[in-house]
Amino acid sequence: MTETQADPITLEIIQSSLQAISDEMFAALRKTAMSAIIYEVLDAGTAITDGGGNLASSGAGIPAFVGVLDKAVQRILEVNDDIRPGDVFATNDPFFGGVTHLNDVVLAMPVFAGDRLIAWTANIAHWNDVGGMVPGSISNEATEIFQEGLRLPAVKLIEEGEPIDSVMRIMQTNSRLPDFLQGDMWAGIAAVRVGERRILDLVAKYGVDTFAAALEHFMDYGEQVVLRALQELPKGRFELEEEQDSGAVYRVAVEISDDEFVVDLCDNPDQDTGPNNASRDGTMVAAQMVFMNLTDAHASANAGHFRRLKLVTRPGSVFDPEPPAAFATYYEVEIRLYDLIWRCLAPHVGGRLPAGHFASICGTFIGGPHPDTGRHFTIVEPQVGGWGASAGRDGNVAMFSGFHGDTYNCPAEVAEARYGLYVDRLALNDAPGGEGEHRGGNGIVLDYRVRADGCFFTCAYTRNRHRPWATEGGAEGAPNRAEVLRADGSVEEYAVVTALPVNRDDVIRIHTGGGGGYGDPRRRDPARVREDVRNGFVDAERAREIYGLE
Amino acid sequence: MPTTTIRAATDVGGTFTDLVLFSTDGETGEQTIVTAKSDTTPPNFEQGVLDVLAKGGVGVADIAFLAHGTTVVINALTERKGVKTALITTEGFRDSLEIARGNRPDYFNLHYEKPAPFVPRYLRREVPGRLTHDGRERQALDLSGLPAILDDFRADGVQAVAICLLHAYADPRHEQEVFARVCELWPEVSVVASHQITREWREYERTSTAVLSAYVQPVAERYLTRLAEGVRGDGFGGQLYVMQSNCGVDSIDHTREIPITMVESGPASGFWGAAELGRLIGEPNVLALDIGGTTAKCSLIEGGQVRIISDYWIERSRRSAGYPIMVPVVDLVEIGNGGGSIAWVDDFAKLHVGPQSAGAQPGPAAYGRGGTEATTTDANLALGRINRDYFVGGEVEADMAAVDAAHGRVAGRLGVDPVEAARGIVRIANNNMVNALKLVSLNRGYDPRDFTLVAFGGGGGMHAVALASELGMRRVVIPRAADVFSAWGMLMSDLRRDTFVTRLLGLDAEHAPQIDELLAEMTGAALAEYEREGIGADQVRFLRYGNLRYENQEHGVEVPLPEGPVDAQAVAASFHELYEREYTYRLDAPVEFVGAHLVAIAEVGKLEPAVLPRTGRDLEDARKGRRTVDYATEGGHEADVYDGDLLEPHMSFSGPAVVETKGTTVVVHPDNSVTVDDYGNLVIDLGEAGA
């Protein structure tokens, strides 16, 4: 590195420019994507890595996608030996750096200065349908990855600027929604190309050595911030085991020292025969999220942040499965693990972590014929829910889970036009739960009224039997669940169901959970309790019984 | 008959009320400018306006055209000084306002605080009745519960009621019924329905818009009424216009109906000024940059047109989701980077500038009012870019000891010498602004090199050349009187109304007549409204845009619609072209029409700038001397210092130089060449080094 050229101000300018480029790529992706799950839910992320695939900066989106793209680039580098300027690679397979599940497609583009590979621009986005055994590709019934859609094992999609037609045709042919696939793919390609252009501008201005020095310096900075934070955390080994809704028991041990944060997941069940597995890379992402929450919560993460994070897993376990494991609902496994580590540490880290939240993606899939156009529609969406209370305040109501971030729900007005369903209601969920000196925030109740016969409903919610956890004597939050209110008046209840037939005038009612409470409810300020009663968050009887309001 | 025509702009800010007054001699066409400043006088703001007019030495009765800008709306919102507001909405949706969109921009922060709703849950009430997305009635409106709801509101001391019903953008009839009934049952209360402000979809955004509008309505109404009465009481008989966020002015009566449209009026007038200036001097493509005390704002002007959008949020940042207001607002990017922005060094020896500002109190260290932290202004002083002997036009003696001490602290933490620290502050501040300029240009598919940078505000001239050079731009224009440029923009404004309506239609020959019908409806409504105010159709001109996208996308691209019936094929062709420019690719997919944007403009006697007279003065007479100026990346140079007030058309000189007036400093870099144009603007051409 030629440190002489690289004064600290120049390095800082390059670093903030990289952040601006990641943001620009994200904006481009969001604006042009064809699928609501990308442009509304922002189930997408962008990143820049150095030439070796180390994360340099990441674009807004969801925290669960921040640590994904570096892993994908690293795998692309391993698998391919013919990498040229203008190429774009694609991977979606967790066994090939895809990290999550087959619906999430990573596109990555190498950036060359002359013949030197200096960086990668990359993005990941949820594509609506990549083939497989069910529409939308996500099935709770899958037992092998082969049933979950087309596997793209870190392959080249564009060569020196020219689309490889045969690969594109294979991709389109394998999707039930080829138009969406095409639109989402080109949105992703546009984004990585914008990033490449901007990086080349930076390199032209500052020189390739200074550029490389800036990346290195930025990662060192991330590491320093983390080391400082580690010094302030309590030291020792912390353990927790927790039964899941499925009956499986997950166990975690976290060891914190002055210079390391080790997450040990060896003692966990064998991999799932269904799709409830998280790849080792995905497991690492869950650990990285808690790690960022604790060490540098306002930052945009880079590889330096994670140098001090170690992960230990057992191959063949649910957190490090082997082929041909299925991954469709990887996200519920990953968020369970994230919540487990969070819960394990919460009592020990002095108010740094609030009580548990609804902690499920509450992934909801509804599809069928659009009653107005006759075309097939599919809703693929996570839900908002309540967040946990903390020592300082009540929990937030109705926000996306910790797995998501700058994610937007779909307006009822847009949903009614686009999907041909009626949204009869979108309200805060007033179910009991989350009581405390500080209350957990409320989840929601969302009613979808089906307008056409022959539709289906799929969901896989957790934190249903085992509810959102409380701290310091607060009460557990309300659970996540779904009801189907049939047109004939009968009511069915679900947490996990695949392709349930629903017909005209059936109502799918989604209840998302609330956050856990903090502290003894009797210590809650009576004025606040009266306000809760006035606002209908607590009824008079519970105000008396639980809060002791006279 | 007076031989001179006087046009005045008054601008009420948090601290000062400003006046800029142009008098145009009817015979010679010669124009003189008067500026004045007096204290803002809350809550009787009209007093400050009358004070500043008196200070400017003009009789209110002699003013022909009075434009007024005010921060009253944005201040009432951000300081939470509106009135107690209630909401009436569709059954099942009272919590929409609190659920919002569920996003958490600061996503690693588990202690994120969701913005609290402006209306608490007990004041959010529901009425049964549903429309479908295309405006058909699915369930009849039932207002039987309304009297009891209003009784509760009365008992709770509610002062304003917002109404927002589902799908009212498609058909406002249910909202109109609720509105009429509320007015009938409770005539005293201030009430606003969403369709009066916006006809676009997304219920949370529209509800928030109605609520925030209701929240400020009584405050703004009172303000405007008193302003009008105040100036009329003093004998004003001319036309009184209020600056809007869409770069136009509007009548005081129309503004009073929906005052929320003033929310971003401050920046809008400056950007309009830049567009008008561009037209005047033959530069239709302009990047406009306004650098003030606490923020820098920028906007892109293409072909003389500002870009007006309705996707506007207050208090939105990387740390907060903010609140949406769907009103026509000039598309701008604002960053916390102005003259008073504080430079600080974090725990890991990284230098940052802003967004915290030293504000008016204590202000930059140089003011000697107890400010100990280095600001951008202090760095500019230390580097000789600002004249330490002519600080704030000579009104303040720069406290250089405080400046040096402040830089010393920054330098110590960075481990460099104080000059390097000051250069670092300027470079970081410049980089922040470059990134903001990229957001409005490169990010949207525009190459800054195709644009001219027009920079104004107190700090515009100080940084403009460095920024332009960084972006490869070849020309910078610093307007005459750049420090009061916003007021100039106000006086250059037309009466302008922007309407956005969502109507989902295929863009094809079959649906083209429906698009024509929509445009005719919108045009008719705008004309009728103007007609009621005594403005005839012959005075009004229109700009029409379609919001288009590939089928199933969400975010549209705005495409100009030429006059005459819509030719679906031609419109689609321009969509593909604009889309490809912005996003680098095009698709062979059906195109959808999402809605229309209509601009109705009426000319109401705005200022016509006159050519500045020449005395034939020698350039040397305008030169005050020489001093060493540190150009940060380009190092120190001996620069000529010019008195900007003595420069006149056709003078030219080269950098390194500095041009000083009372309110601004223009830093001209080595290799730049400067000419003074006919209107007294400084046109700076960057040399090869800049390109």
Question: How would you describe the overall organization of this protein?
Answer:
The complex is a heterodimer of chains A (550) and B (691). Chain A is globular and about 75 Å long. The termini of chain A are far apart. Chain A has helices at 8-32, 36-39, 69-79, 165-173, 178-206, 208-232, 280-295, 330-345, 412-419, 526-534, 540-545, and strands spanning 44-50, 55-58, 88-91, 104-113, 116-126, 155-159, 162-163, 236-243, 249-256, 261-264, 309-312, 363-369, 376-381, 421-428, 444-450, 455-460, 481-485, 491-494, 496-502, 507-511. The model of chain A has no long low-confidence stretch (mean pLDDT 93). In chain A, strand 6 (155-159) and strand 7 form a beta hairpin. Chain A has 550 residues and is of the alpha+beta class. The longest helix of chain A has 29 residues, at 178-206. In chain A, helix 1 (8-32) crosses helix 6, helix 5 (178-206) packs across helix 6 and helix 7 (280-295) runs parallel beside helix 8. Chain A has a seven-stranded antiparallel β-sheet with strand order 2-1-5-4-3-6-7, sandwiched between helices. Chain B is of the alpha+beta class and 691 residues long. Chain B has 16 helices and 35 strands. In chain B, the strands form nine sheets. In chain B, strands 13, 14, 15, 20, 23, 24, 31, 34 and 35 form a nine-stranded mixed β-sheet that branches. A six-stranded mixed β-sheet of chain B has the order 3-2-1-4-11-12. In chain B, helix 1 (45-55) packs across helix 6, helix 2 packs across helix 6 (203-233) and helix 9 (376-382) crosses helix 10 (400-414). Chain B is globular, with a radius of gyration of 26 Å. In chain B, 54% of the residues are buried. The model of chain B has no long low-confidence stretch (mean pLDDT 93). Chains A and B meet through helix 1, helix 5, helix 6, helix 7 and helix 9 of A and helix 3, helix 6 and helix 11 of B.
